Amino acid sequence: MCEQLIVEGRERLSQPRSFVQFTRVPEADKMLNNLEEYPHAFVIACVMDRQMAAEKAWCIPYHLKEIIGCFHFSALSTLSESDLKRIMSGPPALHRFPEMMARNLRSAIRRIEVHYGGNAATIWAGKPSSATIVRRFLEFDGVGQKIATMAANTLVRDFRIPVSDRYSIDISVDVQVRRVFARMGFVSENAPAELIIYRARELHPEYPGIFDLTLWELGRTVCLPTRPHCEKCRWSELCAYAEEVGAGT
To answer: Which range marks the domain in which residue 189 is found?
Structure first.
C-alpha cells in the first residue's frame, strides 16, 4: 500500500502544471493560480484559511478584489487595519472572525512589504529548501504547521515551484487525511496529529507530504466518515479497513 501511494504521488509530480481548483468560483481560482501577477493572493488565502470552510476562506482574496476594485499589492498596502476591519466585517462578513483576520491580513501585507519587497513570490524564489518555505509561512500571523506545510506542498506539487529538497514538507493532517491514513492501517484510529506526521516521515522521509493529495481526495469522495464506498475504491484490495468489513474480497 505504501509503495503504491508513493508511486501515485510521484506520477502526480511528473505531470505538467495544471489549473488548481481551490474554490468553486472560477474567477477566484483564476486569480489564485496566477502566481506571476498575484502571488500575494495565494499567501493571503493561506493566512485566511482557518476556522471556516477552506473553499470560502480561499475566496477571500477575490472578494477583496471585488470590494477594493483591484488586487495589486500597491493598492493593498495603502489599506489600514481599520479599513480592513470594515471590509472584512461587511455586510456580508468575509470571515467568521473578521476583526482577528483583518489584523492578520494587515500583518501579512506588512510582512510582504517589509521582508519581501512587496513581492510575495520572493518567499519561494531561488530554489530554496522546503524548510525555508515552511518557516517563511510560519512567520505570518495566524499560520500554523498544517497550513505552512500545505502551502509548501501546493507550491511544489501543483505549481511546480523548484526547491532544493522536500524533506520538510510534512503531511497536512486534516479530518480527511487522518481518517484515510488510519483506515489504511498506518496509524490507529485515534492517533494524534504528531504521530501521523512522524509516521509519514518514517514511510517516506525524503517527502512525507507525498501522501497528502491522494488521501484527501479519497476522504472527500469514497472514504466517507459513515458508509464509505469501499466497493468503489481502487485501494480496497490493499486497505486494512476494507479487508475488515469484507469489501476487499
So the answer is: 170-245
Sequence-distant (6+) residues with CB within 8 A of 57 are 45, 48, 49, 50, 95
Q: Can you say whether the dihedral through the CA atoms of 167, 143, 63, 117 is positive or negative? A: negative
Q: What does the DSSP 8-state code read for residue 66?
A: H
Return per-residue pLDDT of the chain as tens, 249 residues.
999 999 999 999 999 898 999 999 999 999 999 999 999 999 999 999 999 999 999 999 999 999 999 999 999 999 999 999 999 999 999 999 999 999 999 999 999 999 999 999 999 999 999 999 999 999 999 999 999 999 999 999 999 999 999 999 999 999 999 999 999 999 999 999 999 999 999 999 999 999 999 999 999 999 999 999 999 999 999 999 999 987 544
Work out how many domains the chain is built from and give that number. 2
Question: How far apart, in whole angstroms, are the C-alpha atoms of residue 115 and residue 175?
Answer: 34
Residue 110 CA, chain-centre distance (Å), reads: 22
**Do residues 157 and 13 touch, judged by C-beta distance below 8 A?**
yes
244 vs 100, 177, 193, 215, 249, CA distance in Å? Answer: 45, 20, 24, 19, 10
Last residue of a domain, one of 138, 158, 178: 158
Within-domain flag for 145: yes
Same domain flag for 91 and 123: yes
